[in-house]
């Protein structure tokens, strides 16, 4: 069984010490909100975990497969589908290397296309 980080208390006021970033020194410190006491955090007790999830191109395609049924995405009637000429599409934007891109998905045939903004 592992134990988590222990609570730290101010030696001057006995109040709880809170973690805070010291931007000038680029360090994690604990500080007292009552009296201003401050001490450096011990790096061996850092309790920070960063989980980075990366998706393959195939996974991204599956994620974007049926956005037509997503009620949270906006719809527009100001575009014409290049495949079936229907005038309603769901759209969303994303930042790419080229800049901002609008992605459209035809509500009738499901055709997907993009427009670089």
TrEMBL record:
This is DNA-directed RNA polymerase subunit. GO terms for molecular function: DNA-directed RNA polymerase activity; nucleic acid binding; zinc ion binding. DNA-dependent RNA polymerase catalyzes the transcription of DNA into RNA using the four ribonucleoside triphosphates as substrates. Zn(2+) 1 binds at residues 10, 32, 35. Zn(2+) 2 binds at residues 81, 84, 106, 109. Residues 77-114 form the TFIIS-type domain. It holds the Pfam family Zn_ribbon_TFIIS. Belongs to the archaeal rpoM/eukaryotic RPA12/RPB9/RPC11 RNA polymerase family. InterPro entries: Rpa12/Rpb9/Rpc10/TFS, TFS, Zn_ribbon_RPB9, Zn_ribbon_RPB9_C, Znf_TFIIS. GO terms for biological process: maintenance of transcriptional fidelity during transcription elongation by RNA polymerase II; regulation of DNA-templated transcription; transcription initiation at RNA polymerase II promoter; transcription-coupled nucleotide-excision repair. It is found in: Nucleus, Nucleolus. Gene3D superfamilies: 2.20.25.10. Keywords: DNA-directed RNA polymerase, Metal-binding, Nucleus, Transcription, Transcription regulation, Zinc, Zinc-finger. One of its GO terms (cellular component) is RNA polymerase II, core complex. It comes from Coccomyxa subellipsoidea (strain C-169) (Green microalga).
